[in-house]
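Bumping with the actual sequence this time:
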Amino acid sequence: MTSATDISNRIIEAVMAQKLAPGARLGEQQLAMLFDCSRTIVREALTHLAARGIVTVSSRRGWYLIEPSLAEAREAFEARRVIEMGLIRCTTSVNKTAIKQLKAHLAKEKASVKGDDVGLRSYLLGDFHVCLAECLGNSLLADTLRDFTARTTLIAMMYQSSHDAVQSCAEHVEIVKALENSEWALAEQLMQRHIGHVQAALQLQSSAGDPLAELRQALKPLGGSVPSGIRESRAQDLHTRPAAKPSKDSSTYLGALL
């Protein structure tokens, strides 16, 4: 029987694979049907995810994935710096088995970067940080990083990240190489630089000083002033053209994983 842990893990995987977008609705009944379980189990899974800061609930609207604010986005990256750099700083040795496991993960990353499966690529690039924590012998921080990686994946989707997957994979390779050579200070420096690059690729700075920036941008005139005749023609088109097909609800993407 599907457990609450199974459901929460699958949702986290879907987020890291960018198959569920920020603000996606997670209906209890739909999830219960997908996982062939009771709504009680689904509610338990969603409650756990809410406690971990991945979903939020409204008494009227139900369960939704979080939509991080600018401040929350910056806090998430600062938390990752503290955790990941601190984890490396406390490392005094990495055994051959751990290095072998990290290199196996890197091989999957490289293959995904060359392939067409964007979801798998996104998941593997994020999961590298979880794998690193596990290989450095801290399962508790690995669980914590899994949640923060899911959160920063939502942030990347929400704030239109332009970070290049090839560059990200290459930076992971450099970090593992430094660890293999016992160059702890270099590995920590590389991790700081890597997280900085990921954060810098987000469109976080432009609206930091202007709370109305997003609305201001959305309401800008399209291509300058439009002649009244054209406005009238466009208005008529809205009534005469067939309605566009609605986009697929992101909350249904999870079904593709089952």
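The tokens above came from a reply further down the thread. The chain has eleven helices and two strands.
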